[in-house]
Amino acid sequence: MFTYPLQAHVYHIDPKSKKSWIPATSQAVPVSFFYDSTRTLYRIISVEGTKAVINSIVTPSMVVTKTSQKFLQWSDSRANMVYGLGFSREEDLCCFLDKFREVKDLSQKQQHDEDEQQSVVSTSSLSVTLPPVTQAAHSHNNGAAVLVHQTSSQIRSTSPASSASSSSSPRPLVTPSSIGAGYVHPQTPSPAPGGSPSNAGLNESQLRVENERLRDAFAKSSSNADKWKIQLKSLEEEKQRLLKALEESHANLRRWENEVAELENRKHGSGESVDDLSNAAALRGEVERLKSLVESLEKRNQTKDADITNLNIRLEELRTKESSISHSNLEKLQTMESDNRALKLCINDLQEKLSRQVGLNENFRSELRQLKIHMSKQVVDGKKMEEKLAELIGNNPSG
User: Fold this and answer.
1) How far apart are CA 48 and CA 88, in angstroms?
2) Which helix (H) or strand (E) holds 260?
3) What is residue 17's predicted lDDT score, i.e. its pLDDT?
4) Please, are residues 222 and 321 in contact by the beta-carbon 8 Å criterion?
C-alpha cells in the first residue's frame, strides 16, 4: 500500500560530526509511506534511480521535528540514521506531517493488538485442565495479572526522570536556510569581532540545543501520559471481564449447592442408591473446590482494585508534574527566545559599530598619508631655502 508521494530533497546527518547535513539526492525525489504486509510494518520510502535513500520503519515512539517552514527531520534508531527532508512548499511539509501522524497511530494500534494477542496466547495454555466456567475466570484473572505486571514495569521504566534523561540525547539542529535544486549548505555563524560576538554565538547555539531538548521532553511526557491512560482503560476493562467471570462462578456455585441440597433431601426422604451418594460426594468436592477458587479470585480482584487505585494516584501525580513541568518549560522557552533575540540584536549592533570604526580608521589613515606628504614637501622646501640662504651669505661676505 503506497500513499501519494511528495517531492522533497533528502539529507543524511554527517556520521562524523553529527552537526551538518549531507545531501543524499541531487534533486527533489518522491517520498512515500509504504505498508510492508510481509512484516506488518509501516515504512517511509524514497528512491533515486536504483538507490534507496530512505528506508525508515515507523515506530510508535518516533518523533518528527519541524525545524523551519520547509524543513523537518527525524531519527531512526533501528537504522542509526537521522533523516532530513526539505520541501519547496510549506503545504507539502504539513501534508507529510499529517500523513505521518496517521501512520504512527495505525502503528500504535497494530502494536497494541499484537500485545493483546500475545497475552491471550500466553494464557490460553493454562485453560486446558479447568472446567468450562473456571477456564474463563482463570484466563481473565491471569490476563489481568500479566497486564498489571506489564503496566507497573512500564511505569517504572517511563518515569519522568528517565523521560527527561532520554530526551536529553543529542539531536541535530542544523537546518538548511533555503531549498534549491542542488547542494544546500547548513547555516554557520558569522565570524565575531572582538571576542564578544563569538561568545554570543556560542550562547545562541546552546539556547537552541536547550530549546530542542525541552520540546522533546514535553512531547515525550505527553505521549507517556497518553500511554498510561490507554493502559489504565484496558486494565479497567480487564477488571470488568474478571468480575463477570466471578459472577458466573457464583451462579454455578449456587446452582450446584442447590443440586447437592436436593440430593440430600432425596437421600433422607426415600433413600438413594450408591451412585446417587457418590454423585453427591463428587458434587460436594466440586463445590468446595469452586468455593476455594472463588475466594482466590476475590482476593486477586481486591489486588487488582488496589493496583488500579495506585495507578490512578500515580497518573494524577504525573499529570500534576506534567502541568508544572510544561509551565516551567514554557517560561524557560520564552526567556531563552527573548535572550536569543537580545543576543542577535547585540551581534548586529556590534557588527554595525565595527563597520563604522573600520570606515573611520580608513579616513584617519588617508589623512595621515596626506599630512605626511605635505610635511615631506615642507621639509624639501625648507632645505631649499636653507641652501639659498647659505648661497646668499657666501656671495655677500661683507654682510
Assistant:
1) 18
2) helix 196-270
3) 87
4) no
